[in-house]
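Predict the holo structure. Ligand: zinc ion.
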Amino acid sequence: MTVGDELLQLAHAVGEPQRELVILAEGNVSARLDDERMLVKATGSSLAASGPDDLVECRFAPILELLDDPTAFEGGAGDARVAEALLASRVDPGAKRPSVEALLHAVVLSAGAGAACHTHPIAANALLCSDRAELLVAGALFPDQIVVLGTESLLVPYVDPGLTLGRRMRDELRAFADRRGALPKVAWLRNHGIFAIGANPAECLRITEMADKFARILLGTLAVGEPSFLPDAVLDRIDGRDDEHVRRAILDAAR
Ligand SMILES: [Zn+2]
């Protein structure tokens, strides 16, 4: 199976309406092809109905150069330049237009991830649009959460989607990687949605599913009282326990 096939499988899975992760043309998926190129979903198409021509091959360089350019800005003529850079990044000039969120995918994949999946899940967004969004990064509620999402994830403040968010995301990912020695499995974007960050599309699906389950359970705990997070000692023990590693391996083998 090619990377494109794997990416379409991921797009179709997260696009299933009963999952409540995206509606209309919301969300996008991407995968790194090599150090210079990625495949990313085109703008305007629904994840559920994506076909091979909805995946656009783009080079990182034109996008990363734009993020680095201090004269590039958001709004008006700035937006036109972003659109121009996204079009210029396409390997095939006849390919569809990449989503503006391709900026974020370029940031995540060039930071070392193999694939990324961005959705606007109802449960996660209920929390991300509330004044209690910090609870999403306050700890773990159940062991399987730690197996799939790790012990720490990233909460990104709300900034204008596009150039500003791309730059902010890059800074946040670098700071997280410096502190933890690896990228987060999930980035929670306030008032927006989530980014699953994995080695491949199959891992991105598992991360998206677990992040959604965690958000739903967290919402449930808030309906009956306050969340009771696992103590730090339990977190460390589970993260380092042999049988959990075995389960991690089984999860990887099952993809
Ligand atoms: Zn979005």
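The longest strand covers residues 193-198. The chain has a mean pLDDT of 91.
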